[in-house]
Write a structure and sequence with these properties.
This protein is about 80% helix and about 0% strand. It is mostly helical. It has a single domain, classed as Growth Hormone, Chain: A, CATH 1.20.1250.
Length: about 400
Amino acid sequence: MTRREWAWASYDFANSAFPTVISTFVIATYFVAAVAPDPVTGQAAWGWMQAAVGLTIGLLSPVLGAVADAGGRRRGMLLVLTLVTAALTASLWFIQADPGFMLPALLLVGAASVGFELGTVFYNAMLPGVAWPEAMGRVSGIGWAVGYAGGLLCLALCLWLLRANPLGLDVAAKEPVRATAVLVGLWLAVFCWPVLIAVRDPVVRPPVAQAVRAGLAEIAGLLRALPSQPVLGRFLLARLFYTDGLNTLFAFGAIYAAGRFGMGFEEILLFGILLNITAGLGALAGGMVEDRLGSRRTVLIALGCIIGIGLGLLLVQGKTGFWVLGAALGLFFGPAQSASRTLMARLAPPGEVGAWFGLFSLSGRVTGFLGPALLALATTAFASQAAGMAVVVALMALGFALLLTVRAR
């Protein structure tokens, strides 16, 4: 790999700490177990927050992607969104273990999640300018693997903070847990720089107002052109459902484990470390396999395995079975997401990559409210976390079926 390819992939190392620690394994669990009055209420509230985040991202990401195409300011936008996400994340330190802090916690996590997701639009749009077409699958897969390594290392540091408490923080006030949010904020701010230094925007850039007008015109043109792009249209529709399922599964996995199996913070962290190891290995292998099998086929294989294992996780009764199936599940997370990103980069017309990645993000987020909302409704209606998680498997199965109709090179 070239220096620019490694610099691009290193951003995955920086930003993967956020979904790993904040959205999944530590702060999400802290919210449900310590801030919310009970696990069912906590899972439902977290679901509605994620639904609002999904709707916001779905509205903003295509427009910002098109503006980035027209103005060539991907690097600047990525820097601003990364630093905003880092600051909001670090502010979670002030969320105490009390139901009175539920709303501030949801607002901070929601705003940080919007910043994180919008930043990935600009980051993903850089891929075709970094790697040759025949190497994009490998580079994208290495990026996901590097990201899982970053999440793994950050989780290990969080575990050390919780066990060793080197700063002498107040354990009764959950300060070691809250300190993990500060760690993630610093992590983002420190490790985001290689891609910003090595991957530059075009030298000639129009004024911002002109870029906004051109960007809005471009996204309107893309929407009008969708009927004449049946392959892209069907792919985005399929991704709309299976990514919603993947995001919901990733966001609520630790919450499910904490509520159903009574796993504590340290046990959740150990499970997260195991999951990141298997996910990193899967992403690395998936990127190599993808250039041989093709992006579409790689996504289908990964989704089929995730659906099968997900059904097993709903039925398993013992904690040991949950650990085994969860570790196996991790092997297929990376290939499903990495190959989807590469397929989009291969299908997008040159010069319109940012806008199409905006629609790509839109397809993963315009119904981003649907998965969490259905999960929240099912959890509340049946007073069961398993009933809520069953929605996730159904969404991925629908996306899988739609992707079967896509015929791509």
